[in-house]
Amino acid sequence: MNRRIPVFLCGEVHRGDDGAAMRAIRLLAPGVRRHADLVAAGQLDASMLLAVPTGSPCVVVDAVVGVPPGTIVARPLAELAALGRQRAGGGKRRKGHSSHELPLEQTLALAEELRQQPLDGWFLGIGVADCQPGETLSPPVAVALPALAARLAEILGQLAHPEEALSC
Hints:
Rossmann fold, 7 helices
């Protein structure tokens, strides 16, 4: 089976490290990119995830704060959605967020609630240092960008060809 995987590219390319997702996709080989249905998401919201077909996985790629710059983070979407439900249900609440800009975990949990089914796929992020206006990446993010692209290629390969992953 050769299916196209929705890949939500979050961030803004004109805000330094925040544009890492858009830059990483450019590093993928054409043979890998053909597995991706690219969506320039900017700020991901639950409505974007409603279009993911039932039974189809997706990938969300974004900048991450709170981890060292250049660190690659990969987590199953279902794991993050469960964390979002936990936090929304009385867990520790982050300051400074409105209902118009939910944390990623709560966005995923809301999308699952609205879809009435879990999301399958992966979140892939990179720790960032500077998201100020401009197109220059910080040195740690620039150095780690090929690793982000390589991890994305690996995830796309696994999701596009799940039968090969099972036979290993």
